[in-house]
Amino acid sequence: MPQPLLTLAEGVHVHVPADLDPARAGWCLSNSGVIADGGEVLVVDTGATERRARALRAAVAAVAPGPVSTVVNTHFHGDHTFGNFVFRPEATIVQHEGARAEAEFAGLHMSGLWPEVEWGALSVSLGGVTFRDTMTVHVGELRVELVHPGLAHTGGDAVVWVPERSVLFTGDVVMSGATPFCLMGSISGSLRAVELLRGLGARTLVSGHGQPGGPELFDVTESYLRWVQGLAADGVRRGIEPLALARETDLGEFAGLQDPERLVGNLHRAYAEERGLPEGAALDVVSVFYEMAELHGGPLTCLA
Ligand SMILES: [Zn+2]
């Protein structure tokens, strides 16, 4: 029996991994969405491993009969895209054009970061259709709007908005119970993106990680990012490195968010922006992952 999906509104469902535990790490455990109407089905994000993707496919079939005709990826990270191949060839994969390029470049790199994970027989399925700013997909009678909110979590983010059901799938632009992560995107861009998404007026938010919620999820992400900006301004002024600053920082109201070690990655990005580098300027992601592991006190655990 596949894990049943949670129904958010008529024809709109979410799959939150059953083994997600807010009290421990959450790397690689991502949510998927299902939008179904009139015998047509769209899936948002496909999980990290073959096992999870196949279980998702079975769970989708239980709630929404009919072939999955469209898969939308909220961004290129493997925990949101590696399961795409399970929905091929019936489904068309839709990605922001930036996400497609990033996914092509990254390949299965993420699986190499965590060789102990049982990834399955993965193959990368890139977008067959890409978009630049916005795109509308009609699922039966339901209008599904894809919006690129600018450079935010990554350069190729896409959010999925179902206005008639007031449900917004934010991908990792917004986090729920987990620490936001902008190392591969932009802090200031993420703040603009949050403002843009607020303007859509969604009642229900599904973030890329964690439990669904309401507009209060915007508040946590926004206040965390502003807090990081403030820390970075101070750190740059004092000439202290991001890792040292992260070590001495009291997380305060953000202490309960999963994966707090992301602070050092966020600080690297915020430092770059504080120093006037262009948003999205290339940073040494691999060395920052080592620093996050150092802050964490050991290797980061991928729960895929
Ligand atoms: Zn991500």
What would you note in describing this structure?
With 304 residues, the chain is of the alpha/beta class. The protein folds into two domains: 6-223, Metallo-beta-lactamase, Chain A (4-Layer Sandwich); 230-296, no CATH class. It is 33% helix and 19% strand. The strands form two sheets. A seven-stranded mixed beta sheet has the order 1-2-3-4-5-6-7. Strands 8-9-10-11-12 form a five-stranded mixed beta sheet, with no helix packed on it. Strand 5 (68-72), helix 2 and strand 6 (92-96) form a beta-alpha-beta unit. The mean pLDDT is 96. It binds zinc ion (ZN).
Number of structurally distinct domains: 2
The shape is globular
Going by helix content, strand content and strand pairing, the class is alpha/beta
CATH C-level category of the largest domain: Alpha Beta
Number of helices: 9
Query: Unreliable runs, pLDDT <50, ≥5 residues?
Result: none
**N-to-C series of helices and strands:** EEEEHEHEHHEEEEEHEHHHH
User: CA-to-CA gap between the ends?
Assistant: 19 Å
CATH superfamily of the largest domain: Ribonuclease Z/Hydroxyacylglutathione hydrolase-like
Helix coverage percent of residues? 25-40%
CATH topology of the largest domain: Metallo-beta-lactamase, Chain A
- CATH-defined architecture of the largest domain: 4-Layer Sandwich
Strand order of the largest sheet: 1-2-3-4-5-6-7
* Ligand types: zinc ion
Tell me the number of strands: 12
* Main pleated-sheet profile: 7 strands, mixed
Average pLDDT taken over every residue: 96
